[in-house]
Amino acid sequence: MKDQSDKYNLSTEIIAAYLDGNATPAEVQLVLDAMAHDAHLRELLLLSSHVDTELALLHRKPEYIPMTALAAECGEDNLCCLECEKYVMKGRGITYDEQQILEDALHHGWLKQEGTALHNVGRHLEKTGLVVTRQYGCSIQNIIDALNHHEDVIVAVDSGKLLHNRNINHVDNAETQSLPDHTVVVIAGDVETDVITLFDPNSPNSTDTYSLAQFAIAWADSKNYLVTIKTFDNMKDYQPKPIDVSDVILEEDVTELREAIAENAHDIWAVERMQQGWTYGPERNDELKHNPCMVPYSKLPESEKEYDRQMAMQTIKLMKKLGYDLVKREDTELYDTLLRRLRYSTQTFLCPNCSKHGKKSPVYKHQAFCDVCGHELTDVDWTIYDKF
Fold this sequence. Notes:
By secondary structure, the chain is α+β, with helices and mostly antiparallel strands.
């Protein structure tokens, strides 16, 4: 790569400026002339342009779901999530061993040093036999409806917008989007009186009240994440509410990936069925354990293939919605060079949110969220390029 570039006096700084759209007309012409005679360079710039486009999409719509964000990192030991779950157990008369709960949380990885991730809120309650559901994009009315059905409710909020400023007129940057860092239990909510009552593990009070407007601002940072808890009753009432990925647009070249995932998913299903004693049969027979789908993927009817394809496509979209990105690996030296440039830059980028708290957490261009605090990396200056 270096030898080829030297032929045209093409420095890495010029290449970086070209990729960033900051090259002068003369530099652009220099790059174009080099590309016309250098297939290696054309491949590199094409791949780099593709990846940079993918990275740019990370900070556009759709709005990502902070499922892995450490939402319960408030307090000295980051135990607010455990305290909320213990509060629910007490209210339901469920006995528990406090030390065992802590050990379970650490053993299963639900509780990390920095807190508890959104998708792990309620794990201890599940172990007691309670039914726990997790949903995004909920409303105040959803909370009130759950409470009216005698369900317990835990939500993730931004503590700075809720707990430290009781007067909404004095909440700094109230409309600024950040990540949740605290969990609370909702005790009651009333639209008519514009009041919501919470149990806050970090408050000296048994309960605290806030206006619905202020609560809504703090709750929005978790994308209105709602955890409801109820006893095991009639499962016919189950109403699945998967994460909405309708705003996720995939590139055309994921078709092959979709087919590969769909076929592999079918094979995994077939292996499990075989281990359970199922075999092929022209019609399904649960007693004889016969199933007409116990055939290679290529022999499935289109209706069954479409089911597997939809599952595959929804999985890919969910990954994108959660802030992950897909970069196709090419077995070339250029790919490895580009990947090192993106992920292992000699220029150190630091998470702005961690820096505010005295921590130096390195982040890389491929990331949407900080690995340490979960902060969405929309405020990092990525314009500094390291050398190839």
